[in-house]
């Protein structure tokens, strides 16, 4: 098993599981700075080392202290690492907010052609990030309902594939003990789990990413605290012929609307909860450069579910609002959609 970690580089350390650790800390490997703290990359590499055995883990420095990289450089790093190291899996615990030229998409497709699995961290906030957004990757986001490190839940009909551990990781980095949290550090655990089910026969099959998800759904370590009604939602496929209302007005909804390549349904209305200060304002009024700047934000209590003006609902995160309103808003909206025959897409 050979795993490449595209990250911030790695400090030298001794493997606890007889893994071979290879460090490629070269500034000219698409890294735009000659300096890197290497803390992030070291943590990701050590987490993988904790959960795999007798493998080769190649840590490649591709970003600097700011933990940023351009889409073009990341795409180039993916291709270069495949050609140079011939890995089975590439862990990418970072991403970019755009892929305007489609170079990351090309790199993802190249990885699939070469039978390489890309395991990518999604943005902690739920915003679209690349390459995790592309369907030929395994995209991972930490979720507060996953309480154990090796627990996870497989998601279908969403660009997010895996809900992973959201707690703290205790990692020794350069002789200091750090406590870390986030999708960046949940992702290497999923990489390790995928390495345990990898086989040459598996990746030689067509659409092997789908098959990996199927295997993981059969073996998933659910900690028993999942509300299946909440997580096992079959999102409807929305098309340009659909007319949708969007709610509530949070950053997930803004992300969807501001990514015109992702927004497929026509946006009919935008709603927010009744105590929001945004009610009655337009998206332009509150300082967002939105896909629909002239839309007036309405009180979600006024949704006319019998209206023929919309046939779909796009729902963002509602946990905080549910706590505020002291009711299960997600279940309520699902019931409304079922009753009035509305299509439904939930942004997990």
UniProtKB/TrEMBL annotation:
Phylogenetic placement of the source organism: Bacteria, Bacillati, Bacillota, Bacilli, Lactobacillales
Organism: Bombilactobacillus apium
Molecular function as annotated in GO: serine-type endopeptidase activity
Family stated for the protein in its record: Belongs to the peptidase S8 family.
Entry-linked SUPFAM superfamilies: Subtilisin-like (SSF52743)
Keywords noted in UniProt: Hydrolase, Protease, Serine protease
The name this protein goes by in its record: S8/S53 family peptidase
The Peptidase S8/S53 domain, residue ranges: 3-200
Keyword flag Transferase: no
Catalytic machinery residues: 7, 40, 184
GO biological process: proteolysis
């Amino acid at each position: 098993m050979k795993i490449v970690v595209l990250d911030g580089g790695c400090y030298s350390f001794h493997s606890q599981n007889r893994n071979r650790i290879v460090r490629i800390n070269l500034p000219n490997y698409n890294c735009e700075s000659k300096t890197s703290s290497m803390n992030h990359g070291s943590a990701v590499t050590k987490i993988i080392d904790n959960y795999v055995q007798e493998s080769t883990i190649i840590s490649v420095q591709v970003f600097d202290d700011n933990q940023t990289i351009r889409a073009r450089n990341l795409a180039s790093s993916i291709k270069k690492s495949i050609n140079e190291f011939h890995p089975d899996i590439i862990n990418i615990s970072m991403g970019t907010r755009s892929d305007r030229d489609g170079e990351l998409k090309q790199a993802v497709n190249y990885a699939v052609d070469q039978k390489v699995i890309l395991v990518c961290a999604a943005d902690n906030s739920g915003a679209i990030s690349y390459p995790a957004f592309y369907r030929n990757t395994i995209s991972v986001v930490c979720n507060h309902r996953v309480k154990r490190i090796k627990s996870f839940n497989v998601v279908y009909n969403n660009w997010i594939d895996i809900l992973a551990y959201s707690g703290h990781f205790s990692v020794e980095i350069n002789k200091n003990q750090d406590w870390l949290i986030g999708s960046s550090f949940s992702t290497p655990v999923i990489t390790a789990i995928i390495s345990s089910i990898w086989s040459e026969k598996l990746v030689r099959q067509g659409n092997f990413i789908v098959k990996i998800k199927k295997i993981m759904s059969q073996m998933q370590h659910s900690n028993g605290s999942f509300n299946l009604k909440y997580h096992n939602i079959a999102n409807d496929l929305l098309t340009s012929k659909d007319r949708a209302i969007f709610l509530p007005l949070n950053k997930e909804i803004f992300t969807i609307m501001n990514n015109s390549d992702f927004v497929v349904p026509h946006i009919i209305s935008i709603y927010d909860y009744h105590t929001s200060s945004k009610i009655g304002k337009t998206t332009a009024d509150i300082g967002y450069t939105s896909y629909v700047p002239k839309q007036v934000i309405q009180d979600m209590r006024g949704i006319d579910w019998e209206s023929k003006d919309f046939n779909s609902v796009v729902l963002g995160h509602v946990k905080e609002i549910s706590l505020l309103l002291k009711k299960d808003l997600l279940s309520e909206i699902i019931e409304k959609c079922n009753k009035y025959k509305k299509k439904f897409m939930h942004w997990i």
